[in-house]
Request: fold
Amino acid sequence: MLKLEGATIRNGPFEVRADLAIEPGRRVAVIGPSGAGKTTLIEGIAGFLPVTQGRILWRDQDITHAPPGKRPVAMLFQDGNLFAHLSIAQNVGLGLRPDMRLNAEQKERVAGALARVGLTGKEARKPAELSGGQQSRAALARVLVQARPLLLLDEPFAALGPALKHAMLDLVTELSEETGATLLMVSHDPADARRITDRIILVDEGIAHPPRETGPLLDDPPEALRAYLG
Amino acid sequence: MAHRAVPLARWPGSGAATLVGALILGALAAVALRAEPGQGLGAADWAAVRFTVLQAVLSALISVALAVPVARALARRRFAGRRALIALLGAPFILPVIVAVLGLLTVFGRAGWISTALGWLGLPPVQIYGLHGVVLAHVFFNLPLAARLILQGWQEIPAERFRLAAQLGAGPRDIWRLLERPMLVRVVPGAAAVIFAICLSSFAVALTLGGGPRATTIELAIYQAFRFDFDLGRAALLSCVQIALTVAAALVALRLGRGDGFGGGLERPVQRWDANTRGHRVLDGSLIALAATFLMLPLAAIVTSGAPGLAKLPPSVWQAALNSVLVALASTAALLGLAVPMAATIAAGRGGAVELAGLLGLAVSPLVIGTGLFVILNPLTDVFALALPITALVNAVMALPFAMRILVPRARQVVAQNGRLALSLDMRSTFFLLRVLLPRMRAQIGFAAGLAAALSMGDLGVIALFADPERATLPLQVYRLMGAYQMQAAAGAALLLLALSMALFWLLDRGGRGHVEA
Reply:
């Protein structure tokens, strides 16, 4: 269970307030107008932005002030999810050992993760030598070996075409089902939300509302969401 | 800490900045305490102050005035070799001053090419020593710099603006009024201020082409007070005057160097529809040819006059060359040891004071810092025996502001691209530094190292203060040969110096680009 108890996340002059809980294993879309605070919410949970009031709890443990690398979080950013000068295998290996000193068993796990996302044979390539979709797969392979119980996506597939984006979201769904991870993804597209999530957090004017069931919420949207969906 | 931007330890950068700050501020304090204001400035000192300002003003104005038409020609024309020519405009920055001076003497001196040609016509030879010689040399060094700065201004006008102007039927005169004049008003004062600041602390040019009561800069006066009169109090007092001037000029240059641009464009290649008449083309072509000749002629002179002497260089020259290479390498190592950690700390977003320390070098001239170090070290040790290590250290400190301008933007970029990912992966500071930041900054580190090595190789500053007959660097040895009227050997040694400087720059810069990342 992830809990934000009266949490205020500060992003420069801007603040997002959240008082909500997410049950384990849920897949949750974070939806709202641009500038409403979706990315601020995600980055606050990931530990990149300070929480000025309230607390963030994971399985009843206070992680409000834990550094990003010590949280139960794996995150995919809008861009820059791979180190451009390292090989694909090295990039994935960083998810296991941030100093790249892998033992034989860990190397096998890297190979397994690459096989799982369909990148066998690309281990030695540099990110720039792969297509956009393959780069996304490599980043997902790293998320897979990281095996963190909370997966945060800040629109990492926004630059991909519609078919590729759907394929990636389906892969994310499969992976989170396999690992039982809780998924939180920023989305601009209600169709994406319907496709893979079962809950929606609506963020509007600096408030992150508690999660509601995806289908009913989209079928009968409240005023703020209706204005956004048009 | 829940909101750091990047896993980078702060202490290496802060430590390096503290060293730099202690060295520069210590030297400044030593100079200020040692100065003897009781005596005040004599008539000769005031003459030096006046000459320093006058030659710097003239050098800045002439360089900029000549650079504007050259930059416009380069901005309007596309021709084979344009990129090479623009790259060549950067070369004087790493060209040893003494080499350029010898080249200018070969072309413009009493027995030079131009005087010889005038002699055939029955005219008297040109005089190069004095104010106009100093200004000529400064224009030779700074006209290319001004042209580059102003050309950059031209290139920052987005291509869309030219397209819009052409669509509105604007001719060259309208383009000038709409786009070019506003750009120049913004860029030219900054360029002039930078050149003024550079020429204020001119030493080697004044030493070789100036001198005497009517053409002595403050830097040269410090040298003479130190070296000939051994009047440390007066050297320190003159240093204080120099500091006041340099700091004021540096502040003005930093302020004018900024300014708002034209707003973004979409980075289309600039295409021009104006100035396409035959007259415009001939005008631009001749300007470019003239500027290129002015730059190439002295270099060609060094090669032709130096090559015959190369085979019979005296052993003292080879010893000096070895000294120079060692000093340049030590200076480069010291520079990187300071600049890289400082750039990393600044990029991590916690380096206000570190950034300031990186700029401190602009406030001091080599002769001032040399005088200060002498005041501090003289009671403790034999400073003259340490001439070479001190030269290497001072060269590193003087190159620091340039290195920071090369390294910091790239370090910021790498941190912005990779910092949060590294944090979320729980990467250690050392690992991030060694395996992410440094590999991705390789090209910039190589370029900065190349600049530092070439600058140190060609430096004729502190070494002139401290050298004794047994210890010389190559530039100093060239100067000594000139002083002994061994012009053949001087030209040969200058050619060797030129070749070594360029080779060091090329090797280091090249090394940085060895593994271009995909």
Summary: The first helix of chain A runs from residue 38 to 46.
